Amino acid sequence: MKVKNPLKKGLSISAIIVLLLIILIGLLVAIKYTNQVELTQLKNNSQSQMMGYIIKTKNNQVIVIDGGTDADAENLINHINELGGKVNFWFITHPHKDHSGAFIKIVNETQIPIENIYVSLNDMEWYNQYENERANEAQNLIDTLQNNKIKENVHEVSLNEQLNLDGIRCEILGTKNPEITTNAINNSSMVIKMYINSKSILFLGDTGVESGNKLLDTQKEKLKSTIVQVAHHGQNGASEELYKAISPEIALWPTPEWLWNNDNGGGEDSGEWKTKETRSWLENLGVRQNIIEKDGDITIKIY
Question: What are the φ/ψ torsions at residue 40 (nearest 5 degrees)?
Answer without folding.
Answer: -115, 125
